[in-house]
Design goal:
Blueprint (H helix, E strand, L loop, with lengths): L2 H26 L12 H25 L9 H30 L4 H29 L5
Protein backbone atom coordinates (compact mmCIF):
# COMPACT_ATOMS: atom_id res chain seq x y z
CA UNK A 1 0.00 0.00 0.00
CA UNK A 2 1.47 3.34 -1.02
CA UNK A 3 1.90 6.28 1.31
CA UNK A 4 -0.81 8.22 -0.53
CA UNK A 5 -3.28 5.33 -0.27
CA UNK A 6 -2.65 5.18 3.49
CA UNK A 7 -3.33 8.92 3.68
CA UNK A 8 -6.63 8.40 1.84
CA UNK A 9 -7.63 5.67 4.31
CA UNK A 10 -6.78 7.94 7.23
CA UNK A 11 -8.90 10.76 5.79
CA UNK A 12 -11.80 8.38 5.17
CA UNK A 13 -11.81 6.89 8.66
CA UNK A 14 -11.21 10.15 10.53
CA UNK A 15 -13.95 11.97 8.59
CA UNK A 16 -16.54 9.27 9.21
CA UNK A 17 -15.69 8.93 12.91
CA UNK A 18 -15.68 12.70 13.49
CA UNK A 19 -19.04 13.27 11.79
CA UNK A 20 -20.59 10.27 13.54
CA UNK A 21 -19.37 11.69 16.86
CA UNK A 22 -20.90 15.06 16.02
CA UNK A 23 -24.22 13.46 15.06
CA UNK A 24 -24.32 11.44 18.30
CA UNK A 25 -23.62 14.53 20.41
CA UNK A 26 -26.17 16.73 18.64
CA UNK A 27 -28.89 14.08 18.52
CA UNK A 28 -28.22 13.30 22.18
CA UNK A 29 -29.07 16.91 23.06
CA UNK A 30 -32.51 16.94 21.40
CA UNK A 31 -34.39 16.16 24.63
CA UNK A 32 -37.82 16.33 23.01
CA UNK A 33 -37.45 19.83 21.55
CA UNK A 34 -36.93 20.88 17.96
CA UNK A 35 -33.63 19.83 16.43
CA UNK A 36 -32.86 23.39 15.36
CA UNK A 37 -32.92 24.50 19.02
CA UNK A 38 -30.07 22.16 19.98
CA UNK A 39 -26.77 23.88 20.83
CA UNK A 40 -24.53 22.63 18.04
CA UNK A 41 -21.77 25.20 17.50
CA UNK A 42 -19.41 23.90 20.18
CA UNK A 43 -19.79 20.29 19.08
CA UNK A 44 -19.28 21.25 15.44
CA UNK A 45 -16.12 23.23 16.16
CA UNK A 46 -14.71 20.55 18.47
CA UNK A 47 -15.32 17.73 16.00
CA UNK A 48 -13.82 19.69 13.10
CA UNK A 49 -10.79 20.61 15.22
CA UNK A 50 -10.54 17.08 16.58
CA UNK A 51 -10.67 15.62 13.08
CA UNK A 52 -7.86 17.90 11.94
CA UNK A 53 -5.71 16.95 14.95
CA UNK A 54 -6.56 13.24 14.58
CA UNK A 55 -5.67 13.30 10.88
CA UNK A 56 -2.32 14.97 11.57
CA UNK A 57 -1.57 12.60 14.47
CA UNK A 58 -2.45 9.53 12.39
CA UNK A 59 -0.21 10.67 9.54
CA UNK A 60 2.65 11.32 11.98
CA UNK A 61 2.12 7.87 13.51
CA UNK A 62 2.12 6.34 10.03
CA UNK A 63 5.44 8.09 9.32
CA UNK A 64 6.93 6.91 12.61
CA UNK A 65 5.73 3.33 12.08
CA UNK A 66 7.41 3.14 8.68
CA UNK A 67 10.06 5.85 8.46
CA UNK A 68 11.74 4.37 5.39
CA UNK A 69 8.56 4.32 3.29
CA UNK A 70 8.87 6.20 0.05
CA UNK A 71 6.93 9.45 -0.10
CA UNK A 72 7.72 10.01 -3.76
CA UNK A 73 4.61 10.55 -5.87
CA UNK A 74 4.63 9.01 -9.31
CA UNK A 75 2.31 9.77 -12.22
CA UNK A 76 -0.29 7.29 -10.98
CA UNK A 77 -0.39 8.90 -7.52
CA UNK A 78 -0.87 12.32 -9.08
CA UNK A 79 -3.68 11.09 -11.36
CA UNK A 80 -5.45 9.35 -8.49
CA UNK A 81 -5.03 12.41 -6.27
CA UNK A 82 -6.46 14.67 -8.97
CA UNK A 83 -9.40 12.32 -9.59
CA UNK A 84 -10.22 12.09 -5.88
CA UNK A 85 -10.05 15.85 -5.43
CA UNK A 86 -12.27 16.51 -8.45
CA UNK A 87 -14.90 14.05 -7.27
CA UNK A 88 -14.79 15.33 -3.68
CA UNK A 89 -14.90 19.01 -4.60
CA UNK A 90 -18.32 18.58 -6.18
CA UNK A 91 -19.76 18.29 -2.67
CA UNK A 92 -18.15 21.56 -1.61
CA UNK A 93 -19.94 23.24 -4.50
CA UNK A 94 -23.22 21.51 -3.60
CA UNK A 95 -22.82 22.67 0.01
CA UNK A 96 -22.07 26.26 -1.00
CA UNK A 97 -25.04 26.47 -3.35
CA UNK A 98 -27.31 24.82 -0.79
CA UNK A 99 -26.18 27.20 1.95
CA UNK A 100 -26.72 30.20 -0.31
CA UNK A 101 -30.24 29.06 -1.21
CA UNK A 102 -31.04 28.29 2.42
CA UNK A 103 -29.80 31.72 3.49
CA UNK A 104 -31.87 33.40 0.78
CA UNK A 105 -34.90 31.47 2.04
CA UNK A 106 -33.99 32.66 5.57
CA UNK A 107 -33.65 29.16 7.03
CA UNK A 108 -32.40 28.74 10.57
CA UNK A 109 -28.62 28.94 11.01
CA UNK A 110 -28.63 25.42 12.44
CA UNK A 111 -29.68 23.93 9.12
CA UNK A 112 -27.31 26.06 7.06
CA UNK A 113 -24.31 25.19 9.25
CA UNK A 114 -25.18 21.51 9.26
CA UNK A 115 -25.62 21.31 5.49
CA UNK A 116 -22.25 22.99 4.99
CA UNK A 117 -20.59 20.64 7.50
CA UNK A 118 -22.24 17.57 5.95
CA UNK A 119 -21.07 18.59 2.49
CA UNK A 120 -17.50 19.13 3.73
CA UNK A 121 -17.59 15.64 5.27
CA UNK A 122 -19.07 14.14 2.10
CA UNK A 123 -16.34 15.87 0.10
CA UNK A 124 -13.64 14.29 2.27
CA UNK A 125 -15.30 10.86 2.39
CA UNK A 126 -16.20 10.59 -1.29
CA UNK A 127 -12.83 12.01 -2.37
CA UNK A 128 -10.91 9.59 -0.14
CA UNK A 129 -13.13 6.68 -1.18
CA UNK A 130 -12.52 7.52 -4.83
CA UNK A 131 -8.78 7.47 -4.20
CA UNK A 132 -8.93 4.13 -2.37
CA UNK A 133 -11.00 2.57 -5.16
CA UNK A 134 -8.66 3.98 -7.80
CA UNK A 135 -5.66 2.53 -5.98
CA UNK A 136 -7.39 -0.86 -5.82
CA UNK A 137 -9.01 -0.97 -9.28
CA UNK A 138 -6.91 1.48 -11.29
CA UNK A 139 -7.57 4.89 -12.76
CA UNK A 140 -10.40 4.83 -15.31
CA UNK A 141 -9.35 5.60 -18.87
CA UNK A 142 -11.80 7.95 -20.54
Amino acid sequence: MTHEEKRAWIMLVVSVVAYASYAVVVLGRVDGGPLSAVPYAGALLWTVGGAIVANIAAEIAMGIANPRASRVKDVRDKEIGRLGEHVGQSFVVIGAVSAMLMALAEWDWFWIANVVYLCFVLSAVVGALTKVIAYRKGVPQW
